[in-house]
Amino acid sequence: MSSTSVRINNLFNNKNIAQIAQGGPFAIFEHQNDMSVSPGESLFAYFMKEMNVRKRQVFCDLENGAVRVQAGAMQWTAGNIQQESGVKGVGNLLGKLVGGAVTGESAIKPVYRGTGYIMLEPTYNFLLLENVASWGSGIVLNDGLFLACEDSVSERVISRKNISSAVLGGEGLFNLCLSGNGYAVLESPVPREELIEFEISNDVVKIDGNMAIAWSSSLEFTVEKSGKSLLGSAIGGEGLVNVYRGSGKILMAPTLPGTVHKNDNGPEKTAATSSQGLGSTISTLFGN
Predict the structure, then answer these.
(1) 15 three-class SS
(2) Is the Cβ–Cβ distance between 218 and 158 less than 8 Å?
(3) Which residues pair with 241 in a beta bridge?
(4) Would the CA dihedral through 103, 106, 112, 118 be positive or negative?
(5) This prediction's pTM
(6) How many angstroms separate the CA atoms of 146 and 149, rounded?
(7) What H or E segment, with its residue span, contains residue 44?
(8) pLDDT digits (tens, 9 = 90+) for 3-50
(9) How many other CB atoms are there within 10 angstroms of residue 9's CB atom?
(10) What is the separation, in whole angstroms, between the first and last Cα of the chain?
């Protein structure tokens, strides 16, 4: 713990708040029950808990260190913590404004530096702790995933090598890429338990749709036909797929909303398939 004279009660010893993950200066706290609901909202709150819809917060424990967070995400600080803009001159500001505009992330991410504690605002999103160094040359993020990182982690905006991968792949033309040493906190639309991680070595992964939420910057991302020909792709029913080629990792969320297959040829209750309809059909055939 930080060497600060601030004492915090009813947090670390709170039975309703559980620490579910830790990495670097970051810890993820999860509120087990929503205690501040009215009687009329209690039924709703009960089923939210049963479906793992809970408030989660990121806690930072700094010892002469620094973290960078999404603008507006800080809830409180304690100790000798100073906020910096994270902007180094006019040129750097313009670069950040452009980068924020094309990636969908906040242009200015304040830096909190010193010794003490920082708590971020609660969220219903699922929080992931990623060791950026384990992604090699960097980790590319889908828009809106970034929440916080250690100040030792570098940010840059990368663009697609071809427009087709953006227009047809549904991923956007620009993405935020994190690299270097340190931990980052990501806001995931699905829990860690539902994420599939691919580790590929000079190989290829093809995904139908933009279910990949993060991938190694070393991978080449293109959009290609699912079959060898347009006719084969059409017959297969997949059309175009997102292709990740090379060596690296991919985090895929297979349970994102809209990923359920709608089978128009699936079984349905008709006169020919239901027991009642079958009897009616036999009666018609034999004239009874």
Answers:
(1) coil
(2) no
(3) 224
(4) negative
(5) 0.78
(6) 8
(7) helix 42-50
(8) 888 999 999 999 999 999 999 999 999 999 998 899 999 999 999 989
(9) 7
(10) 85
